[in-house]
Amino acid sequence: MINDILNETKSKMKSTLSVFEEDLQGIRSGRASTALVDRLRVDYYGQETELRQLASISTPEAMQILIRPFDKTAIKSIEKAIQQSNLGINPNVDSDVIRLNMPPLTRERRQELVKFLHKKMEDTRIAIRNVRRSANDDFRDFEKEKMISEDDMKFGEAEVQKLTDQHIEQIEELGKAKEKEILEV
């Protein structure tokens, strides 16, 4: 029973961390990356669809992203989605492809990105703590119902705290690395 809660907690924390890692890929740093746009939501025939399902995305140059839609009628929708995103990039439509030329990051934009990064880190830490609280509530409920002993409850809470500390430490490491990448000129 305790192991079930611990395993579930570990898996929830891991998935929270992997969502954070995906979010980090979408935060712009000094060079172009397909991760900036591949999860962008595009209104495709009334359906919210990720850009990576509608087009091939590549980086032919260090500061350029090339989007080649599978369906040429989707170009307008893709262009609109890029303009509405907070990427700060204007798409250049060139017959059947869209080029995104990445402007060099200004100091102000770098600071905005770092601020955004810190908000993402805090949101992820809160999500991890919520998983911890949920697990601890389960331990307390089981202890109240006499399904586990008080010692087992304390042991379980201590193990959950170790998991929480490990995951929050990983968030900090990933965040510091991304911040360094953003501030690198």
Helix and strand arrangement:
Elements lengths: L1 H24 L15 E4 L2 E4 H4 E7 L2 E6 L5 H10 L6 E4 L2 E5 L5 H38 L5 H34 L2
Helix pairs in contact: 1-4, 1-5, 4-5
Under the CATH scheme, the architecture of the largest domain is Orthogonal Bundle
Mean pLDDT over all positions: 90
State the name of the first-level CATH class of the largest domain.
Mainly Alpha
Distance between the termini: 51 Å
Q: What kind of sheet is the major sheet?
A: 4 strands, antiparallel
Briefly note the CATH topology name of the largest domain: Topoisomerase I, Chain A, domain 4
Secondary-structure-derived class: alpha+beta
State the oligomer: single chain
Radius of gyration: 22 Å
Helices and strands, in order, run as HEEHEEHEEHH
Question: Low-confidence spans: pLDDT under 50, at least 5 residues?
Answer: none
Fraction of residues in β-strands:
15-25%
Can you tell me the CATH superfamily of the largest domain? Ribosome-recycling factor
Spatial shape: elongated
Which strand order does the major sheet show? 3-4-6-5
Number of strands: 6
Helix coverage percent: 55-70%
Tally the helices.
5
Number of domain modules: 2
